[in-house]
Specification:
Blueprint lengths: L2 H5 L13 H6 L7 H10 L30 H6 L1 H9 L2 E2 L6 H21 L8 E4 L2 E4 H11 L1 H30 L8 H23 L4 H15 L5 H9 L8 H31 L7 H4 L8 E2 H26 L22 H12 L6 E3 L2 E3 L1 H18 L1 H4 L5 H4 L14 H20 L9 H28 L24
Antiparallel strand pairs: 1-4, 2-3, 5-6
Helix pairs in contact: 6-8, 6-14, 8-9, 8-14, 9-10, 9-12, 10-11, 10-16, 15-16, 15-19, 19-20
This protein binds protoporphyrin IX containing FE.
């Protein structure tokens, strides 16, 4: 017997024929001998299948057949916009203000890319020295001066910088809303972990951006990063030189940091954001509690993407643009004059608020905390600059797996499709608030000498205050939950909605 035939048995009607498995499964199409198919194709003036391609490996996909053979319009005939809109335009978006935080993060990224492209037209990533009006300056610094001297370019530079802050704020608030409402749980664990990578990359993009104007702030702040990279046991020197284009600051540094800032990190962000959004389309948004009363079981309630959500999102984008331009016109951010060109008398600088917690921890970690593990030297810079943030991000990424309520026995295999009122989970609220208080205390630690604390006092305060706050929040939350009647508690998993209308159902 033909081996192919043993795999795909001949049919009763046509004993010698081999059918395409998908045709056979669908019970349709004529059963033709493979050679006969090739012969027919050749007889019709078509080419036979190339030898390397086996017929049974091909996909037989339906071609969209227009209901009406008359032209539906130029674009419709070619792209089939109506079918596309039917499939994706009706995606339902929950009506809840906190759901705009993710979109704000997305639009901040878009604004950063657009303003960044404009700045890249003028900026030169080079530390080579040039003489401008009798002053010898690094070329990157001089090109940033040029940007500042052109009013529209200066405005764009400010918008770019303010927008970096806005992106970090919106990403953080977005993550906090998901955390406190418990929607990082089944089935959205992967998207949560994906989001943690987005948060880390957003912070990295900000750090890389600081190097580019190459003022004295840039040299000091990036120098701290270089020191941290060098402290990696065993591979520190290689890793630091790879990331910073040589021993920082050197001629290779800015081209390397620039490439990372304008290509590598944004491309990674764009791809991971794409995956993030694909997962949201696949899994659908979680639902505010009110939706349960209105949506049909198993369906999602919200305004359809087209045109309502698109209009709302468009408004948000314009508002963000407007707000950022106004802010930038009124309050210049990080002007070059504030720090001046790099030189021997660089003042001590502190990183921006979103990296200040790492800096705070680095400041209070004892300088003599050095030990050896398997012959590798572990020092305070490595512990404070990489291990500590690494632990925080790993704990955050693992939150869905650490949360006991996300284990099968709690949900009997059901999914968390609704936002959970935060009062229903005092432990989660206490942990979240405690962590935020701890990060806040690390901000204080960044200034502990200026505030007159000793290192011992700072350690004590940075551990005790967040712990006390977490305990207080937990105690109060527990008491509130205990006084909440059972029937007033909201089950974030159920699908027990009465049948009703679904606006823009997905
Ligand atoms: C560049 C950064 C980010 C962008 C552009 C982004 C974008 C979005 C958008 C547009 C949504 C749908 C609307 C919404 O639920 O707010 C969403 C949902 C979601 N995001 Fe993000 N996000 C980012 C970062 C993060 C971070 C840092 C996390 C968590 C650590 C995260 C976790 C999630 C999850 C779990 C959902 C589904 C939420 C639900 O359905 O309740 N995202 N994201």
């Amino acid at each position: 017997m033909d081996p192919l035939e043993s795999q795909y048995p001949a049919t009763e009607k046509n004993p010698g024929a081999v059918r395409h498995p998908r045709e056979a499964a669908a019970g349709q199409g004529s059963a033709l001998d493979l050679d006969e198919r090739d012969a027919r194709a050749a007889g019709n003036g078509h080419q036979a299948l190339p030898d390397r391609i086996r017929f049974e490996d091909l996909e037989v996909a339906p071609r969209p057949v227009p209901a009406d053979r008359r032209s539906q319009g130029w674009l419709e005939d070619r792209v089939g916009v109506k079918a596309f809109n039917q499939k994706y335009g009706r995606k339902a978006f929950p009506v809840h203000t906190t759901f705009f935080l993710g979109e704000m993060a997305l639009f901040s990224f878009v604004i950063l890319v657009l303003t960044g492209i404009y700045l890249a037209l003028i900026y030169t990533p080079s530390t080579a020295e040039v003489t401008i009006n009798g002053e010898t300056l690094p070329q990157a610094y001089a090109s940033t001066q040029l940007i500042e001297s052109i009013p529209v370019a200066n405005l764009f530079r400010n918008v770019h910088h303010w927008c970096a802050h806005l992106m970090v704020i919106s990403v953080l608030l977005h993550a906090l809303r998901i955390f406190f409402q418990g929607t990082y749980r089944r089935p959205r664990e992967l998207n949560w972990a994906n989001g943690v990578a987005l948060l880390a990359l957003t912070l990295l993009a900000g750090f890389l951006g600081y190097a580019l104007p190459f003022d004295s702030y840039a040299v000091t702040a990036t120098g701290i990063g270089y020191g941290i990279a060098r402290s990696v046991p065993g591979i520190g020197n290689v890793a630091a030189e790879l990331f910073f284009g040589g021993a920082f600051p050197t001629l290779g540094s800015l081209p390397r940091l620039y490439t990372l800032h304008v290509f590598v990190v944004p491309l990674m962000l764009a791809s991971i954001i794409g995956l993030h959004l694909l997962l949201i389309i696949k899994q659908k948004h979680s639902q505010p509690g009110y939706a349960r009363k209105l949506a049909e079981p198993g369906r999602v309630l919200g305004v359809p993407l087209w045109p309502y959500q698109a209009l709302l999102a468009g408004q948000l984008l314009l508002l963000m643009f407007g707000g950022l331009f106004l802010l930038s016109a009124a309050i210049p951010i990080h002007p070059l004059d504030a720090y001046g060109p790099p030189g021997p008398n660089a003042s001590e600088v502190k990183p921006d608020w979103y990296l200040l917690w790492v800096y705070g921890f680095l400041r209070i970690i004892p300088g003599d905390l050095v030990f050896t593990v398997f012959g590798l030297n572990i020092g305070p810079e490595f512990l404070g600059g990489l291990v500590f943030p690494g632990v925080i991000f790993t704990l955050m990424a693992l939150a869905p797996w650490l949360d006991k309520t996300n284990r099968p026995k709690h949900g009997h295999g059901r999914f968390y499709q609704y936002l959970e009122p935060s009062r229903q989970n005092p432990l989660r609220v206490a942990i979240g608030v405690g962590m935020l208080a701890y990060i806040g205390m690390l901000f204080v630690a960044a200034y502990y000498t200026e505030l007159g604390f000793t290192i011992g006092q700072m350690w004590f305060l940075s551990l005790v205050i967040p712990f006390a706050i977490a305990l207080l929040v937990y105690g109060r939350g527990r008491a509130r939950l205990n006084s909440l009647p059972e029937e007033e508690r909201f089950d974030p998993m159920g699908e027990d909605a009465p049948l009703s209308t679904t606006v823009g159902a997905d």
